[in-house]
Write a structure and sequence with these properties.
It is built from eleven helices and 17 strands. It has 373 residues and is an alpha/beta fold. The chain has a five-stranded mixed beta barrel, surrounded by four helices. The protein has a four-stranded mixed β-sheet with strand order 12-14-16-17, with helices on one face. The longest helix is centred in the first third of the chain and has 16 residues. 45% of the residues are buried.
């Protein structure tokens, strides 16, 4: 049996892309059948999941994707190099602890020395080289026996993200920026967020985790034993003919919880978590205000237009239009507008109220309008 310590850390690295969530604040563009990671939201010509794959594939010996059964076809089309054994399909969403935990369990049974890294499919990041350097540092730090998160250096006092308070600098070869994690903290109010940013000790929690699979599973077993038992049962059947039967029987009963609560926060309390500050730009594209920010207007019209065949006229207006129809859209004398025009739904709001789109989705769901969700 090989000695894991003798194998360079990156040669043990396997990336995992959890591709879930509907992105309700991006309705009606993002829907249950076509969530935001399947869309090009930056005008780059790449969907978000494809861009995520391209950032990670050069670093990893393999890339695993965990997504819903409904998205299998779209994911396969967008990621033709994805190996059959590395596509994990969820019968129903169970939050990040089950998704990432199952990936860790499958990888651990294939190779217990694996270092895994989990990176959401729906984030916009650049420059790629700066991101990849942070990942390499995270892998080197994980090889010393820690769960590592990549925290984002905050550009403003955001209240929509959790924060990470960094502690003492660690001495890790190949990871000059590694620090101990003093604590994870919940989303703050504006005043507290301003204090965090001013202190220079806090980073945004972007949900990026790199860890030896054995350590990840150890903490999951300690804090969520039933969830751990369930995913291990599925993992043991994964590369066998019993996969579908075991998955259908066990998965529905798994607890819904986030990896932050099930693993990261208790591991930080135990002193097992480190952080690499990410100095790259990062956006989780949480609403249409983010799309407007990521896609500034390319001409003097003041309107950002996203779509294959847009027919948009504007005068004394600003904002963003997302359209997949050939309908003419005319905007006159209106600022910071958001218009999303699809075949069966039309959204009109402003960038200031972009977060409230989720309320419309909740109302439609309560009325049973599932055909447009």
């Amino acid at each position: 049996m090989r000695d894991a310590a003798s194998v360079p850390a990156l040669e043990r690295f396997h990336a995992v892309i959890p591709a879930g969530g509907v992105g309700t604040r991006l309705w009606p563009l993002s829907r249950a059948a076509a969530p935001k990671f399947l869309h090009d939201l930056t005008g780059s010509g790449q969907t978000l999941i494809r861009a995520t794959w391209d950032r990670l594939a050069p670093l990893a010996r393999g890339v695993m994707v965990v997504t819903g059964e409904a998205h299998e076809g779209a994911v396969r089309r967008q990621l033709p190099d994805l190996q059959e054994q590395d596509l994990v399909l969820e019968p129903e969403p169970k939050d990040s602890a089950a998704a990432i935990g199952l990936a860790a369990a499958i990888l651990s049974l294939r190779d217990p020395d694996t270092i895994m890294g989990s990176f959401a499919a729906d984030q916009v990041i650049g420059p790629v080289e700066v991101f990849q350097d942070a990942v390499a540092q995270a892998v080197a730090t994980a090889a010393t026996g820690r769960i590592v998160t990549i925290g984002i250096t905050p550009s403003h006092p955001a209240t929509g993200f959790g924060y990470i308070r960094s502690g003492r600098r660690l001495r890790v070869e190949g990871a000059p920026d590694a620090h101990d994690v003093a604590a994870f903290v919940e989303k703050p109010d504006r005043r507290v967020a301003e204090r965090y940013v001013t202190s220079g000790r806090y980073l945004w929690n972007a949900g990026m985790f790199v860890a030896p699979v054995a350590l990840m599973l150890e903490h999951l077993a300690a804090h969520e034993p039933d969830l751990h038992a369930g995913i291990m049962e599925i993992a043991r059947a994964w590369d066998t003919p019993q996969r579908d039967e075991v998955m259908a029987r066990v998965w529905p009963g798994l607890k819904k919880t986030a990896i932050d609560y099930a693993v990261a926060e208790p591991a930080a309390t135990a002193g097992d978590v480190a952080v690499i500050p990410g100095t790259f730009t990062w956006d989780d594209v949480g609403d249409f205000a983010a799309i407007a920010r990521l896609n500034p207007a390319r001409d003097a019209s003041g309107i950002t237009v996203i779509g294959d065949t847009p027919r948009v006229y504007s005068s004394d207006a600003s904002g963003v239009v997302v359209t997949d129809s050939d309908r003419v859209i005319a905007l006159i004398g209106i600022e910071d507008v958001v218009v999303v025009d699809t075949g069966d739904a039309l959204l009109v709001t402003t960038t200031e109220h972009a977060q409230d789109v989720k309320k419309a989705v909740e109302s439609l769901k309560a009325r049973g309008a599932d055909d447009v969700l």
